[in-house]
Design brief:
Distance between the termini: 11 Å
Bound molecules: BIS(adenosine)-5'-pentaphosphate, magnesium ion
Low-confidence stretches: none
Strand order of the largest sheet: 2-3-1-4-5
Strand content: 5-15%
CATH topology: Rossmann fold
Radius of gyration: 16 Å
Mean pLDDT: 97
Shape: globular
């Protein structure tokens, strides 16, 4: 399986991805986690992206596409993968299509977790309040992340919808309810 999980910040992509990847024995590739780890390690990449993450902006397509290309070339991705947080812009979606074409492969499922705006900020804020340690889990930065989502990532969802590749899943309800909806579309 080669799965992409789409949806706004706070939709539950990370939460669902962990369970889905384990159940399907495929690597969970979270570009946000990769970047946060780089920041924590203080690597050259981490130093380059820290301020961008703190502001809630997107890291450049050039950096992200190179990062994903390298990650996808690893052996563990041969049986499949689950992308969480990539693609986030149209150029990233087009680059992913090209990367897969080179491998003569295609995405098997593009899933959008749909959650109304009013719920998202509350989820992110309460995670910040319970000590997530994420510098972008404040109301101010979460609002910025949502704005960026509407500007740059919503067109990615439209891109897959127009290509009739998009599966929309209702992201309201308990974590287990959302998981079983995703399970149903995968089987
Ligand atoms: P990233 O780490 O990808 O952040 P995000 O995915 O946008 O936002 P979240 O992780 O907050 O949302 P989520 O959908 O994963 O929800 P979660 O499961 O955590 O990116 C961070 C930053 O990295 C970006 O801002 C950007 O700077 C950079 N970046 C990353 N990828 C990039 C790219 N491709 N290009 C450029 N820049 C990039 O859930 C949220 C909360 O809700 C949790 O507390 C969870 O417990 C709770 N929750 C989950 N499901 C439910 C439910 N059903 N009911 C109630 N609560 C729930
Ligand atoms: Mg996440």
């Amino acid at each position: 399986m080669r799965i992409v999980l789409l949806g706004p910040p706070g939709a539950g992509k990370g939460t669902q991805a962990v369970m889905l990847a384990a159940a399907n024995k495929i690597p969970h590739i979270s570009t946000g986690e990769m970047l946060r780890q780089a920041v924590q390690e203080g690597s050259a990449l981490g130093k380059q992206v820290k301020a961008v993450l703190d502001r809630g902006d997107l890291v450049s397509d050039e950096v992200m596409i190179a990062l994903l290309r390298e990650r996808m070339s690893k052996q563990d991705c041969a049986p499949g993968f689950l992308l969480d947080g990539f693609p986030r812009t149209l150029p990233q979606a087009q680059a992913l299509d090209r990367m897969l074409k080179e491998l003569s492969k295609e995405l098997t499922h593009v899933i959008e977790i749909a959650v109304p705006e009013r719920v998202l900020i509350d989820r992110i804020k309460s995670r910040g309040a319970s000590g997530s340690g994420r510098s972008d889990d404040t109301e101010e930065v979460a609002s910025k992340r949502l704005k960026v989502f509407w500007e740059l990532t919503a067109p990615v969802i439209a891109y897959y919808r127009e290509a009739k590749r998009l599966i929309e899943v209702d992201g309201l309800g308990t974590i287990e309810e959302v998981a079983s909806r995703i399970h149903a579309v995968l089987s």
